[in-house]
Amino acid sequence: MTVRTRMHLAAHFPGVNSTTVWTDPRSKSQIDFASFEHLARTAERGLFDFFFLAEGLRLREHKGRIHDLDVVGRPESITVLNALAAVTERLGLAATVNATFNEPYELARRLATLDHLSGGRAAWNVVTSSDAFTGENFRRGGFLDRADRYARAGEFVATARELWDSWTPEGVARPFAHQGRHFDIAGEFGLPRSPQGQPVVIQAGDSDEGREFAAATADVVFTGHGTLDAGREFYADVKGRLATYGRSPEDLKIMPGVTVVLGDTAADARERAAEIRHRQVSPQNALLALERIWGVDLSSYDPDGPLPDIDPEPEPALAQGRVRVADPLAVAERWRALSRAKGLSIRQTVIEASGRQSFVGTPETVAAELDEFVTAGAADGFILVPHLTPGGLDEFVDRVVPLLQERGAFRTEYTGTTLRSHLGLPEPVWKG
């Protein structure tokens, strides 16, 4: 008898990105605890695996000024999750914390504290940075070459795991010592082994080095692929790397970030999706997106007019605190071709070219499409990125989750208490 594949679901709290529609009157604060609590409680009501917070270490700038179309301020993730641990019971709590601008002992202690306070529900989304602009906020700003960021991150995770393993499962503290290229520390860790052995490790990154890092280190991969075929290619590639590290396909869950727009009919859903995308890409945001690629001031251009006929500058530097576009000229050529083929303006081109992977339709069709991605080997589940703070998850939980449950594609109750149990991950073997 074939065992039914069940998907995993997580919720991403909207924040510093172009997904959130801040002009919607239902949009609330991204700082008030009530917003975090509402979305987390909704995710737990929907039996989601975990609640996911991103990170912003410096206010982003554009043309030398703080970008006034961005949200200003983001609370520290682990602090927020410690508070959410008190108002949730089963929901996993995932914090994005940078491995470039932190130290293993301090971060391992904070994550272990969250795991103890929550009863085994903590997760760490490992990110890296070689951005000197962000690094200026830290003592060693800009010290790390881009080529070294994954090397430091890999050693950071390994060192944190050594710290978490320095207590025996029976509660006996043992000294630790780590000597490596990036860290040379020794002493005694301040907390016993946590309820799920170690916090869950999440990783995001689509480059070859990112995929290898995930295969070697991560429990969950946060990715994004716009089509079923692209998802299957990524899924097969990353899962195929696991054996090199003595791991099985079940040891790593691949969960792309997705948006969902629902309607009573397919036409209604498409209309809502178009309106949301139109509001996400304002005229100002359209020019900002273009300036990130071209690297020059385009404020004189009409967002409803044609794309620039000039080529991008080789070293774009207008935007600070954002991921650099890898090949601006190639992106510009693709966007021009799209604009010519469909007769699109600047704003229309940005809307079409930069849209996130989305599931748009009736609750029934969305449930079926999500299920297909999992059963076809394109994902183990999804991290939902709503466009409203904090109520953007409500409709999905009320209208889609019951349909997934009817299909046997999603749980009808939590059967464990830890995040590892929700994800079906084995408890790490103690290596003390």
Automatic annotation (TrEMBL):
Any one GO molecular-function label of the UniProt entry: monooxygenase activity
Domain Luciferase-like: 25-378
SUPFAM superfamilies to which the protein is assigned, alphabetical: Bacterial luciferase-like
Alphabetical UniProt keywords: Flavoprotein, FMN, Monooxygenase, Oxidoreductase
Assigned EC number: 1.14.-.-
The keyword Acetylation is assigned to this record: no
Enzyme class: oxidoreductase
Pfam families: Bac_luciferase
Coiled-coil ranges from the UniProt annotation: none
InterPro entries found in the cross-reference section: Diverse_substr_monoxygenases, Luciferase-like_dom, Luciferase-like_sf, NTA_MOA
Top-level taxon of the source organism: Bacteria
Gene3D superfamilies, sorted: Luciferase-like domain
Family: Belongs to the NtaA/SnaA/DszA monooxygenase family.
PANTHER family: ALKANESULFONATE MONOOXYGENASE-RELATED, C2H2 FINGER DOMAIN TRANSCRIPTION FACTOR (EUROFUNG)-RELATED
Full protein name: NtaA/DmoA family FMN-dependent monooxygenase
Origin species: Streptomyces mirabilis
Lineage: Bacteria, Bacillati, Actinomycetota, Actinomycetes, Kitasatosporales
